[in-house]
Q: What sequence folds into this?
DNA sequence: GTTTTAAGTAAACATTTGTTCACTCAAAGC
DNA sequence: GCTTTGAGTGAACAAATGTTTACTTAAAAC
């Protein structure tokens, strides 16, 4: 008749700390379910609370409904994305083959944050209209930052910002598409992973090849 | 006390015709729900049968479960996609600005088959693993056909097929992404639609600019 | 030390879900 | 014409869903 295993030394936590902790558990639970093949509109509130080890009604102490939880997850995914950019910025430009090494780094980063990338990649087009819109807005934000970075790097300094953003938007679309496929690889498929990476490298190369020859659109003049 | 409105002159149909007809109603119902904001994993069997005007149990006379229905929808979407290619082939090359006019045609085609394109665009990354895989396979098929078409048109005749497919895969990714956004436009937003189209045209231009300069990968030699 | 507050619990609810079973009844097969 | 077949019905089920309502109980406020 073991009643209840005390999950953690709980007494040391303040009330608000405890609250934030279960809130986190709920978010984690949803993320786990999502990366276990579920998709967001297929989630149920009770499922999430069950996974979090919490009674269903406790959910309402933290979120109005599942959509609100989802939005907070999207926000976090946006942070993860932008952190990627920041790290890439600090790493500076590698010497040799910049695209290939970027893809390697990106690939590792995706695998290090599978749940956020799966969320971003798979609910970007599917899912509830609310989440979709939120993700689009995060992606747009990311694209703007990336374009700004290209500008700081002096890449195609002659182009107007809108053109740089057009290029970056293409890159990001390709990146997120690749993320979805990377995460679908049945782990340990080294060969398939390498082919995928090869294609990804090729596509980015193609894009930048186009970007180098790109001539400014007429949008900059009256 | 109106019992039941006789929906159609039913007596003239043979048994198998009637069966195929309700099967079609079920598929139509699912497509309608999907393009009304629902996503596939959020669909319920009863919901579909309700929309189709049929009792829930009738569903099992046509499909084992929702996944089977979904697969048949994906198959149809694949047909629609490939029909697009065939029509483009017959239309031949327009004289002036080939990319812009292609985008116009594509855009109209997407709006003419919104449900199939929404399915393809939104369940390609999200949704159930089964549907996702099926859609990926349809898309791959489409990419191969498109590459073959480029070959027949004499575009970059020097490149190996794998490279043409790499290019086409990039194009198709961009196309499907654009389809998702086109369908999300709150109808009547002419300005937004034009901006979207402009970006779409730009990205394709960029891709083909890169494709023209592309140099064959080393994969062709031993 | 007493009172207040609020995170989490427990029970109960009205719906909705997927699936079963036995049934009708009209077309198809003979 | 009689029999067989099978698409669609209707009732019933166990299970799961979202949400409300009243409750415990320990930290926070005084």
A:
């Amino acid at each position: 008749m073991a009643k209840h295993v005390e999950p953690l030394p709980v007494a040391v936590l303040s009330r608000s700390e405890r609250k934030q902790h279960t809130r986190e558990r709920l978010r984690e639970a949803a993320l786990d379910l999502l990366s276990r093949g579920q998709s967001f509109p297929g989630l149920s509130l009770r499922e999430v609370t069950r996974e979090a080890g919490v009674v269903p009604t406790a959910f309402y102490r933290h979120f109005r409904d599942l959509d609100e939880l989802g939005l907070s997850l999207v926000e976090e995914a946006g942070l993860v994305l932008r952190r990627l950019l920041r790290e890439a910025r600090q790493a500076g430009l590698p010497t040799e083959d910049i695209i290939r090494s970027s893809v390697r780094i990106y690939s590792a980063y995706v695998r290090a944050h599978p749940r956020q990338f799966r969320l971003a990649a798979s609910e970007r087009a599917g899912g509830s209209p609310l989440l979709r819109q939120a993700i689009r807005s995060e992606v747009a934000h990311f694209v703007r930052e990336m374009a700004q970075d290209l500008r700081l790097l002096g890449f195609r300094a002659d182009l107007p910002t809108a053109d740089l953003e057009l290029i970056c938007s293409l890159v990001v679309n390709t990146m997120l598409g690749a993320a979805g496929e990377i995460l679908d690889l049945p782990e340990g498929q080294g060969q398939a992973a390498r082919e995928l990476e090869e294609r990804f490298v090729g596509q980015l190369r193609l894009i930048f090849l186009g970007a180098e020859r790109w001539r400014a659109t007429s949008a900059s003049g009256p």
